[in-house]
Amino acid sequence: MRACFIGDSFTHGVGDAAGLGWRGRVVARMQAGVPDLTAYDLGIRRDTSGDIRRRWEAEALARLAAGFRHRLVFSFGTNDCADDGTGAARVPMAESLGHADAILARAARMAPTLLIGPPPVLDDPAADARIARLEPELATVAGRHGVPFLPVFEALRQDAAWRQSAAAGDGTHPDGAGYAALAARIWDWPAFRHWAG
User: Fold this and answer.
1) How far apart are alpha carbons 160 and 168 in whole angstroms?
2) How many whole angstroms separate alpha carbon 100 and alpha carbon 7?
3) How many domains does the chain have?
4) pLDDT tens column, 87-134
């Protein structure tokens, strides 16, 4: 199996001294049942949905060789909702949803695909308000393409490990304990267990 984890700094695991993030933790658990797994970290810091739309397919196709089972998982949206320096979102919601629609339309035809919702910013209430509005709309887009969607915004906003470690760091990214809490939530999601095989 070859799996691509495509997204932003949260997908990459920024803030985790162990360098695992949530992705590394779920991959470690997947390998117990899928020993031939190769998992690719395609998370880029500050990437918006538009950035991911421009790059993801070429990056995935370079890694999804014939003869393997393929998997795709995306997580984006937080950077779309971040302040652009003028008090507005970096990417307007309608554009975010258009990017998500284009990404998932193509991805769902390529391989089993999941979409994980955007985590909170915590140190920017205006951005978090935008994320709270974006997340259910992303769920609707995913549903149109038959892509399972996991909302995480509210759960992480209330999670003590996530909040405390983000506050102790850069205000947004948690440490390993915060990512472990998100990894557990993803691992316990039945759609992820089915996707993981």
Assistant:
1) 12
2) 12
3) 1
4) 999 999 999 999 999 999 999 999 999 999 999 999 999 999 999 999
Displacement of CA 28 from its chain's centroid (Å): 17
CB 131 within 8 A of CB 81: yes
Which CATH number fits the domain that encloses residue 67? Answer: 3.40.50.1110
Provide φ and ψ at 74, rounded to 5°. Answer: -120, 150
Q: Which residue type occupies 190?
A: P
User: Could you tell me the end-to-end alpha-carbon distance of the chain, in angstroms, rounded to an integer?
Assistant: 9
Give me the domain span that covers residue 87. 2-196
The single residue listed with the structure tokens 């997340």 is 135
User: What is the C-alpha to C-alpha distance for residues 40 and 188, in angstroms, rounded to an integer?
Assistant: 21
Give yes or no for a contact between 5 and 195, defined as CB atoms under 8 angstroms apart: no
**For the packed helices 176-187 and 21-33, what is the interaxial angle rounded to 10 degrees?**
40
pLDDT class of 197 with cuts at 50, 70, 90? confident
